[in-house]
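so the lab meeting is tmrw and i was supposed to have these ready like two days ago... anyway. pasting both below. for each one the top line is the aa sequence and the line under it is the structure tokens. i havent really looked at them closely yet so no promises
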Amino acid sequence: MPDMKNLAKNTRVMVPVGDYLYRGIVAEPPADHTRIEGMICIELTPPVKTMKPYDSINYVTCPVDRVTLGWL
């Protein structure tokens, strides 16, 4: 198993949002976000549609141990 802390940018992963897993790719966190040890930034592919007042969720930051490698 690869070292989850050092996943390469654009690696395909599944990430939990609520009770569901969504497809995403490893991304660089936005410049205005601080990097926290053990956390990883995922760009959802495609973005998840949400209810108002938001349109969609584009990025998720979560603990590395919650990410699953590959797309299901």
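ok protien two:
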Amino acid sequence: MVKENSGKIFRFKLDFNMGFGYAEQVDFSDVHTFDGILILVYKLIDDSIFERSIDEIRKSGILFGPVSIFRYPPQRGKGAWKLLGIASDFIINELPPVKFMSGSKPIKDWSKTKGQWYKYTNWKADPIKVNYEEVRYIETSTLNSSTGIVSKITMMKIIQSGECVSNYYDLTDLGYKNIYIQIVNTYYDKDTAEKLLLIVDEY
């Protein structure tokens, strides 16, 4: 772990002026150079101009992650994340398990793929063959952008409010479509996922 780059707490603006989200960075790029920078997003979302304390942010719990990000969050310019502070301890101290699928073209419902799902337990041991329901709530090793992470949490807020994501995002756009498919297949149970995926065309 790169300790000097870990424990950083950020605040960022959601899409469509839907408030502000909070996230924590943990850096394992000394172990995995390509995808070792991880982001955990907290449940706390607010509309206040006032920033929250690190303790308050952490107590809200994790909404999703750790997800891999291909570079450190931007702290300047459009879409910048504001660094609020650095935690005195680390929320995780080792690389998390990840899932991946092989042997099939992408489909919108990951539980119905004809390919095989695998789980990496510590990123070093051989992958384990699994049924999708065993790894539904585990992250993939897909690299995210900071803007993609913002879109993820915004989509989840829209779903939580009972609204339709396609009223805000163009899900014919492959980028937004892939983000939506990823969150629905990872953060929601099978029955809920099937309903949420009805608004998405098959690949």
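from a quick look at the 2nd one: The chain is about 25% helix and 25% strand. The CA atoms of residues 107 and 152 lie 19 Å apart. will dig more after coffe
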